[in-house]
Amino acid sequence: MYEPRNYREWIQEKDLVSFHVLIKETDLHIRAVKDLQSEASASVNRHRQAIEGYIREHPLFLGALESCQVEEDAPHIIREMARAAKVAEVGPMAAVAGALAQEVAYDLLQKSPEVIVENGGDIFLKTLTQRKVGIFAGGSSPFTGKLVLEIQPEDMPLGVCTSSGTVGHSLSFGQADAVVVVAKSAYLADAVATAVGNRIRSVEDIDGEIQAGGDRYGIEGLLIIKDDRMGVWGNLKLVS
Questions:
Q1: Nearest-angstrom CA–CA distance, 82 and 129
Q2: Measuring CA to CA, how many Å separate 55 from each of 67, 88, 95, 117?
Q3: For the chain: N or C, fewer Cβ within 10 A?
Q4: DSSP labels for 39-67?
């Protein structure tokens, strides 16, 4: 089912060319130095075919809620999804949105020195200038549109992935309005966002996750929003 992504209208910088790729469930908003829509579509198709082909032969991979072993000769994207899922202790499909964002971005970086790929709130970016990523925690959240994550070029490439139990259709066993994870790998950021989001059921759960921190996952930063409470861990620069 297609879900409107109105937060994309927040983008104000005009230094890059924006375009969309919509293939089956994959809905990407991409920015690069030139229009690379055809190249991006080919990249999405190639990586989706690898995932879909593996699932046809290993159907349990699709619905697994815990990490699972994959063959050494499995497609690269499958192996990396499984690796991230093992670190986060979630099923491998928890990393699929971040995986596609990262792989498409790296394919396009061969033709553009700057690329930002957003896949349903999961972002992978590599640019030469500072970028700002708005935080979306649902239309009723007091934090939506009020907080911006500032990212410096020396910190990229970087994955910024969001999980929510109250926004969107992605599977979550928690009730967080937003769990934002920043990591060098969008695979890992996506998987960890799901793992942390699964454990946030009330505002009382925020402190425990922040105190535990993200060192156990190897991530750069963590932001948790539930109702009118927020917790932050790691190397994040938030501006209003």
A1: 32
A2: 15, 21, 15, 24
A3: N
A4: HHHHHHHHHHHHHHHHHHH-THHHH-SS-
pLDDT greater than 80 at residue 2: no
Is 24:36 a contact under the CB 8 Å cutoff? no
Q: In this structure, what DSSP letter does residue 143 have?
A: T
- The pLDDT of residue 58: 96
Instruction: Give the tens place of pLDDT for each residue, 179-189.
Output: 999 999 999 99
pLDDT for residue 234 is more than 60:
yes
Residue-range domain boundaries for the chain = 16-239
Token code pair at residue 216: 């156990």
16-239 folds as T-fold (3.10.520)
Per-residue pLDDT averaged across 10-36, rounded?
A: 89
Dig out the tokens for 232 from the structure: 């932050």
Q: Please answer whether residues 74 and 80 qualify as being in contact, where contact means their C-beta atoms are separated by less than 8 angstroms.
A: no
List the one residue out of 221, 220, 223, 239 whose CA is nearest residue 231: 223
pLDDT digits (tens, 9 = 90+) for 38-50: 999 999 999 999 9
